[in-house]
Amino acid sequence: MNTGTLVEITVRVGDLVEENQIIKTLIGEMKLSNSAVGNLLEEGIEWVPYAGKIYQGIKLNRLQKRFNEHQAKFNEIGKLLSETSMSATYISERIFPIVLSDLIEEHEDAKINLILTGFENVFIEEKTEESVVINYFDSLRELRYADIMRFYYLSNVVQTYKVHAVGSDEHALIRNIDKKLENRGLISIKKTYGAIAGQEADIYSDNVQLTLYGRKFLDFILDSNTSV
User: What are the pLDDT digits (tens) for 115-166?
Assistant: First the structure.
């Protein structure tokens, strides 16, 4: 074993010690502000794959920042957690590690409320079918915030949508988002003669229908307090 390898191992061990201390501090802070969620974090953190790779520097800071910014949401989840009749193992070992990974890995801050709303709705709707919940989180992970805002417009959650110049980068992006939403099985676009002939065309909420999965997914990420 050469010196370079020894140095790398020493640095890695040092990093893991520092990471573990940051994790313990974060768990302690969460327990003080929200004991139910703090306990869930302590349990769930053991079930996140590749913990040593995930909990590093900027990602830990990102997680702590998001806990602080969404305290109200976590307080609501804490109440639901203490009242739920669902299996503690199902929540702490199966569902929460997925939520926790998304809270760490998601680059768009605007999506965090959607992730937490989905988790909240697991309790509200008592969604005990693991494969269904995982699939909803998979779909949310695959979409950018701009995709979801477009989905809201096409779902009539919002009534207006910014118009961009025909042929602009933004216009091209919207058309691409519409195809993405259709390919993800969230919407069904009514085909025009031009579309059948292979011509590109803009779509609007009145020529789009939500699929069954699209309606269920919308329910999963939307609540009465959602700000769009």
Answer: 999 999 999 999 999 999 999 999 999 999 999 999 999 999 998 888 888 8
Distances (CA, A) of 71 to 24, 37, 171: 18, 10, 37
Going by their DSSP bridges, the two strands 208-210 and 187-189 should be labelled as antiparallel
Write out pLDDT tens, residues 10-57: 233 344 445 556 666 666 776 666 677 777 777 766 666 544 544 566
Q: How big is the chain by its Cα radius of gyration, in Å?
A: 21
Instruction: List helix spans (H) across 35-189.
Output: 35-44, 51-54, 57-69, 71-83, 88-89, 96-105, 112-124, 130-142, 145-154, 169-183
Beta-bridge mates of residue 187: 210
How much of the chain, in percent, has pLDDT values that exceed 70? 73
- Cα angle 90-95-96, degrees, rounded to a multiple of 5: 110
